[in-house]
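Narrative summary of target 7.
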Amino acid sequence: MKVYLNKNNAVFLSIFVVTLSESLFIINRGLGGFFEYIGYGILLLSVLAEFCKKTNHKEFRRKVIVFILLSLLMSCGFLIQDLTIRRKFVLSFTVFAICIVSTLSEKYLNSFRLIRRASYAILYAVLAATILGTVGGEKIIGDSEGLFGFTFAFCGGIKFKNYFAADMLAVFMGIYFSYRYGEKRKIDKYLLYLSSFLIIISNSRGGWILFITFLIATRYSIIRKIKKGQRKLLIIVAGGIGIGIFIYFFRNIAYKSGTYMYRVRGLANYIQYYRNDIFHLFFGNAETVYDKTNTYVMTVRSIVGWDGSLEMAVLNILIKSGILGVIAYIIIYLRIGKNIITTNDWACKTGMVAVTVTMLISSLVEAYIQSVHCIFAIYGYMVISGLYDLSKRNEYQRINVDLIYNE
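Modeled conformation, tokenized:
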């Protein structure tokens, strides 16, 4: 019997394998990297195949130029530094993966059915990680800091509880979009409750923050009910309130949180340490932190001080790619913002806003947006791109229907 790896199968298989590569069972047996490369190999090749097959010539050329520009900005720093060929290949692979899914994946998860399928792949992978971890004696429940009286954190056999929470948030996102805007299946309703519960018992503060952020951001469509002339005023008022809430949160919660201030000090210490080293500020510091006797984390902390950590995304971008890399990510999110503004389909627009805002907030607490080791950001970039393509197709169909009706 022949088995064809069409897009439906490629979506499920690739995301399943990548997510499973985060499991302790796989990592502790030295197979994490193998699973990650196999999963991303299938994913990126299928994304590129859809892009080449379904993109017109003008759009193809424009997006390839953007892809090349972003790839150069992110990689030129570590390519000119003193690193082994293997390390340059690994870093290039992560850069190309981010650039491909953020710029060339519009034709991939471009339906609510496919987004739902991707979420199910993550869910089944986490379930497999939990079963394998239980059988293999890996950690399923870890220790936590005792938030709200809870001193345990359910990680489901995934390497970190924060990764587990991010995985379950990705599951929630896709099923939520499918259930709200696509086909309403009873099983999906139950899975929304289940994924919410699992995020809660992960005892991941970052996971809770991102979950709440996503839920709030999905209310964006309420703007549609307001007259166009009043929307600007509402946005200004909402923006002011949002800034006020952010300042309050930072001063009264984040600033008083020892673990979060570790993140802030890590970034501040790095900038302070290299403020006069223009080369490494602009091109990154890969040659200093990779392939050393100590681990990446220990090496960075030994340089910038032990009173800071490196979970914030911008710090990891500065280390890997420098200010040029930061510029690349700014371009990525400016392009996403432009696409959101030009999207007329409110279901797609709301989904794009919700995922984008959640990913941007995640950059303040975790390094997801520049990492391939947790599926969350890769999934998010593909969902944003896919919803944009879906909105364009819906708009095209609406225009054609209007033309036929007017005739």
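Residues 399-407 have pLDDT under 50 and may be disordered.
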